[in-house]
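Practice problem: predict the structure.
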Amino acid sequence: MTTRWIVLEQRGVNLEPVRVGICGLGTVGGGTFNVLTRNADEIARRAGRPIVIEQVGARRDSPACDLTGIKVTRDVFEVARNPDVDVIVELIGGYDVARALVLEAISHGKHVVTANKALIAVHGNEIFKAAAEKGVIVAFEAAVAGGIPVIKSLREGLGANRIQWLAGIINGTGNYILTHMRDEGRTFEDVLAEAQALGYAEADPTFDVEGIDAAHKLTILASIAYGVPLQFEKAYTEGISRITAEDVEHADNLGYMIKHLGISRRTDAGIELRVHPTLIPKDRLLANVHGVKNAIEVMGDAVGPTLYYGAGAGAEPTASAVVADLLDVARDIATEHNYRTPYLAFSGIVEGDTSRPILPMENIVTAYYLRLLAVDRPGVLARVATILAEQDISIEALIQKEATEGELVPIILLTHRTREANMNEAIRQLESLADIAGPVTRIRVENLDDNA
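Answer:
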């Protein structure tokens, strides 16, 4: 027995270790390996037993990890079948291989910890069902907002509340881009290239800038908040690639910030589930979250607004959440699974549950920012106002800029709240006018009122 475990035994730590198999040794896998080894004594004291790395499955070694004395395999499924492994930590990412690996691990009676938001959002219902049948745990705190403990807060700390809405900046890449567009007046393309050079954005940034990554995370948060099955396919996603420096400037002049938000709200008709660029007032909490940071605001009927802020990605911030899940698994291994906290916070959630449907985007009610280019001639603004009025859309504010080359006048409108379907029709009619050039830019507006 090593000196380390003798000391732990003297402190009353149970020396029956929890044996971990780490699958994937990339950024998060390497961070998890290093946090587990560096903080082994502290983690063991918290868990009541050592948590040891039994095996690593990875396509290549990480130069940042000392694998001396650790079993290493290139076949992650070997780790899932290893009888000496109690918990599989899935950090390979993606959909298909990760799903097969997790289900294989569950079938062999392994508990699972994952940081894979895409896996949980798309295949979580199936995975949770398989885990319940085998009596094992699936933990996924790191799947949303990196090191921010928002899942545990929603599932446990806010358990007394009826959650009314939640809104979040849950993709650091998009927030970095919009922050620098506003602060420096730069274009989307310019800041994206910088984010790629700095490693904040992938070579193919589609998941980040088009809202898919955020929609994965929002799907998970909404299911926990409202007790509905995971339904990623019903989430509305819209990216930030069409946001211009002019839009950012106009929003600023109107007293707003543009943020790429995931928003979910409980309504009498169902649950809103949407990711899109959003104007929010400058004095709101989320308006003041900048750079690559993440933040989620949750409104509960009893507690009011709460904000969860921090690093939403990165090796050790995400590893912090992964290891926290390992601690929970270590503590809960001896607990009969019927008494554990339900994965999605509510007992008895079934995949086909339609009692609280996800609302189609056409039924959403919100305010809007519109930017259009009009020919500089009398009567154009009146025709625009008429089209909006016919769709029951009232104007809150209007800015008409100086004519540009070719005598086109930028018109910026803020509307009061209206149904998305009405706005869709209004935009269709506006774009068909001969005096309107090009597409109408639409950005939704949310006040995120603490009293709402």
